[in-house]
Amino acid sequence: MKEIFILLVVATVSCSAIVCQLDQMCESPTIEAGQVDSYAMEVRQKMATHRCFRETLESTLQALEHDEISLADAASRVRDASQAWWPIYLADTDRLESGWTPTERIARNLIGHLENRVEFNPDLNSRVQALRLELHSIDWQPAQK
What we know:
Radius of gyration: 24 Å
Low-confidence stretches: 19-23
Number of strands: 0
Mean pLDDT: 83
Structural class: mainly alpha
Distance between the termini: 85 Å
Shape: extended
Strand content: under 5%
């Protein structure tokens, strides 16, 4: 019985030490009781702005998929929405996509989104190929002053 008790104590102490280490690794900012409403409002605002951006992105992808909008117009629409609601997207495309301008990088990203949909909708492949041709036919270089 004594061995079981010692084993339980060791296990409890070990688990407590691990939980403390994980807690320190995952520290989040401490929020005072008076700040909870402010923090919650900030989170809701971020969620709302992200939703506005995602809705614009998704409707633009649908329009591209159905050939209702040009690639350049789609990229401009998403760029404007990102500037207004979700600048993180611009930073991510600047970091992850190649291209002369933010609009070109967004155009490449939009094509990438549609390429991912080809797996579920093989008929979309011809539209993706047409968008790639359109991408290469546009002069994306920034205007020289």
